[in-house]
What we know:
Radius of gyration: 18 Å
CATH architecture of the largest domain: Orthogonal Bundle
Helix content: 55-70%
Order of helices and strands: HEHHEHHHH
Largest sheet: 2 strands, parallel
Shape: globular
Distance between the termini: 62 Å
Strand content: under 5%
Number of domains: 2
CATH topology of the largest domain: Helicase, Ruva Protein, domain 3
Amino acid sequence: MVPLYVPPLRERKEEVPYLAAFYLKHFNDKYGFNKRLDAKAVKSLINYDWPGNVRELENLIERLIVTCAGDTIKDAGLPDPEIQDSITINLPSASLLKNAVEELEACMIQDAINRCGSTRKAAAELGVSQPTIVRKAAKYGINLRED
């Protein structure tokens, strides 16, 4: 066996458009769409640091294919690089792991529902089923109806 060193994606930014195009075609074929990325979305992808490497890019492209309306993906949906490093989660230091996980899960579900506007889109973004979102929303007392 020969060890191979493959630099992280953040060090191979020139490959991002090609990888994005590959995954775009793959997921268009898988879901029966014909979506494309506009220049601004591609630029956002190139400028992102990709802490999750290629797998993060793959997951993002799949999420965009499923959740973006229309044939052109105009926004890459990435965190702003300016604030990317400043995102923190404040949890009580003495909290139990289970409680902390539930608190974070409830916040993520509420945020996804607010941004996406539907439980189906929120589920796709979070990588879970729509019934899971509905069940967990009920568990955490998250209102799914417009008042």
